[in-house]
Amino acid sequence: MSKEEVSLTPEEVSGILKIAKNTVYELIKRGELPAYRVGRKIRVDLKDVENYKKQGKINELLSESHIPQHQKITGNLAAKKGFFTDEIIPASQELVVCGQDVLLDILARYLDRHPNGARSFRHHVGSFPGLLALYQGKAHLAAIHLWDGEKDIYNIPYVRHLMPGTPAVIIHLACRMQGFYVARNNPKHIKDWHDLIRTDIVFINRERGSGTRVLLDEHLHRLKLDRQLINGYDKEDYSHLAMASAVARGEADLALGNEKVSLQVRGIDFIPLQKERYEMVIRKENMEKPLFQAVLEIIRSSEFKSELQGLGDYDLNETGLIVAEV
To answer: At what angle do helices 302-311 and 290-300 cross, to 10 degrees?
Structure first.
């Protein structure tokens, strides 16, 4: 499958480039990122996204080093532009939401029209950066999927240690299946974690701090597999979609990601390995505020769950439950 055949939505582009969706639209509007319409929907070719990255423009976009001090973006304006700054963002009528799953985009849409809701600004970062932003007061909500291999539990140990002294509430969103992306019909007969160290396998990895990278490293530790033997361990990408596309194009034999993306990319198969818990973290001090109660109401609503169910690959049996207060 060639790069020319892979088309992306603006949401998927924002995940790959790690910028806000609004910034993607601005790039398209300025003609810096080629795009086209399919009916009423905008699509961007993967090859154009990769060309944009190669030009180095994304490094300028995500860095404030080129911005004069008197023009520095702060507060909620920073959130709108997709930047994090040193200024604490108050829990006002605008929400900064960290995480990469499409269900957060659906949540943002529901919040936008809820009577006690607000406009949400999505920041497509992995679990570690999201928790750090929440701890530092630069985000309001963080969605995470961090597995502790020693205790065989998700999220609670990480919230406790990455948000020290900060009371927080963990709310369950959904369970998702994680597994391997391999070429169609699995020509190299990949089965489990031990295949990662085969000399004939080329791997592509997620970035450090993402929940998927943590899952990989925890299993390597448990199984005593030497990461230095993995061909491609240090080759990183920033979204499930980008990695699945790399496998589809033959640039890698193997990648780790969630099942949903495997249904979006032609030319790959999915090998299920582990069901993971995808959960939202909120500061406890905000829980009783109307805006955050609106978040809970939406997550627990039959309308929200029904829309997620239609997307597939979500186990919603515990959606909306408070799983821990840390």
So the answer is: 50
- Per residue in 198-226, pLDDT (tens digit) is 999 999 999 999 999 999 999 999 999 99
User: Any alpha helices (H) in 37-188, and if so which ranges?
Assistant: 46-54, 57-61, 75-81, 102-113, 127-135, 156-162
> What are 76-102's pLDDT values in tens digits?
333 333 333 334 444 445 799 999 999
Tokens 């291999």 identify what position? Answer: 149
Secondary structure element (H or E) that encloses residue 25, with its range: helix 21-29
Tokens 């909500």 identify what position?
Answer: 141
Cβ neighbours of 112 (radius 10 Å) = 11
Kindly report, residue by residue over 287-296, the tens digit of the pLDDT.
Answer: 999 999 999 9
Contact (CB, 8 A) for 193 and 252: no
| Domains of the chain, each with CATH number or no CATH | 3-61 (1.10.1660), 69-172+278-325 (3.40.190.10), 177-275 (3.40.190.10)
Extract the runs of DSSP E, i.e. beta strands, from 53-209: 94-98, 119-123, 141-144, 147-148, 153-154, 168-183, 203-206
Q: Structure pTM? A: 0.74
